[in-house]
């Protein structure tokens, strides 16, 4: 692929609720992804999803760029021969899973892990069933769980986790137990170093609190709203001008943001070329 002046940019993006809607439809982003590919600009998923899930998405989208999984728990990429490599950035699922049970006892409230949910509950909560659910449940470096409903309980859970040298981040529908210091933003920095491009410019897109570290580590941060607007915890950054706001939810807003904020793409009208 011929590299263009745009190629000193990466597009690093959350998937669920950002590039995809909450029914996992990303069709509105297809044209923008193709545009980026024509200009040699990597599209790097940075998501709470598992590697299995991202590999499936990359196959469908025709991507070959590196990616970040499980909220920064690991980075993946392809060698020159097409072999997939992996670098873990925190403790394993086997190390983390017993800690969730201990936190549940200390908190005194149920913390139902994703791998313990029945098919019916998972379908109701996440819209996943069958093989799609099994891929989401096969974790390697994080433990997703149904978080407490009350903000006070969520705060106390984070404090309890920190006392154990762990971290908790909140997505749209699930909480995620991680190793201390593990985040999408830290994983991005590690990936840039590993790829030998520490100064590459990053357009980051996200929609929920677990994307904050990614947005803060980027050169241009875009919040993609939901149908009811941006997530409340991201509104402050938008209001302060630290984050841009995409003009529409999910893939439609994602595409418009990419076209607007990658230098030169909008002026050249390259999305339609």
Strand content: 15-25%
**What is the distance, rounded to the nearest whole angstrom, between the alpha carbons of the first and last residues?**
16 Å
Listing every helix as H and every strand as E from the N terminus to the C terminus, the arrangement reads EHEHEEEHHHEHEEHEHEHEHH
Mass-distribution shape: globular
Report on the architecture of this protein:
The structure is a single chain. Helices cover about 40% and strands about 15% of the residues. The chain is an alpha/beta fold. Helix 1 (about 30-40) runs parallel beside helix 10.
Fold topology:
Layout: E1 9-13, H1 30-38, E2 43-45, H2 51-61, E3 67-69, E4 74-78, E5 84-88, H3 93-107, H4 119-126, H5 130-137, E6 143-145, H6 151-163, E7 166-170, E8 175-179, H7 184-194, E9 201-206, H8 212-216, E10 220-223, H9 232-239, E11 244-245, H10 250-261, H11 265-268
Parallel strand pairs: 1-2, 1-9, 9-10, 10-11
Antiparallel strand pairs: 3-4, 4-5, 6-8, 7-8
Helix pairs in contact: 1-10
Structural features:
globular, 5-stranded parallel sheet, single chain, disordered N terminus, 273 residues, 3-stranded antiparallel sheet
Brief rundown of the structure:
This protein is an alpha/beta fold and 273 residues long. The chain contains 11 helices and 11 strands.
């Amino acid at each position: 692929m011929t590299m263009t002046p745009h190629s000193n940019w990466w597009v690093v993006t959350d998937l669920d609720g950002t590039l995809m809607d909450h029914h996992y439809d990303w069709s509105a982003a297809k044209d923008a992804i193709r545009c980026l590919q024509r200009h040699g600009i990597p599209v790097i998923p940075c998501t709470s999803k598992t590697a299995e899930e991202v590999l499936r998405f990359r196959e469908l989208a025709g991507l070959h760029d590196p990616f970040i999984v499980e909220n920064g728990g690991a980075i993946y990429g392809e060698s020159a021969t097409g072999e997939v490599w992996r670098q873990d950035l925190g403790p394993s699922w086997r190390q983390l899973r017993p800690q969730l049970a201990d936190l549940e006892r200390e908190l005194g409230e149920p913390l139902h892990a994703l791998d313990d949910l029945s098919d019916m509950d998972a379908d109701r909560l996440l819209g996943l069933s069958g093989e799609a659910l099994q891929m989401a449940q096969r974790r390697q470096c994080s433990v997703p769980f149904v978080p407490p409903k009350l903000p006070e309980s969520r705060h106390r859970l984070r404090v309890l986790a920190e006392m154990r040298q762990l971290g908790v981040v909140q997505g749209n529908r699930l909480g995620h137990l991680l190793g201390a210091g593990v985040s999408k933003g830290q994983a991005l920095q590690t990936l840039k170093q590993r790829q030998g491009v520490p100064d590459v410019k990053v357009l980051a897109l996200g929609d929920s609190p677990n994307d904050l570290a990614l947005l803060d580590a980027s050169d241009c941060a875009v919040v993609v709203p939901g149908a009811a607007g941006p997530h409340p915890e991201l509104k402050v950054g938008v209001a302060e001008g630290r984050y841009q706001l995409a003009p529409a939810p999910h893939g439609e807003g994602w595409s418009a943001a990419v076209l607007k904020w990658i230098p030169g793409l909008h002026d050249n009208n390259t999305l339609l070329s």
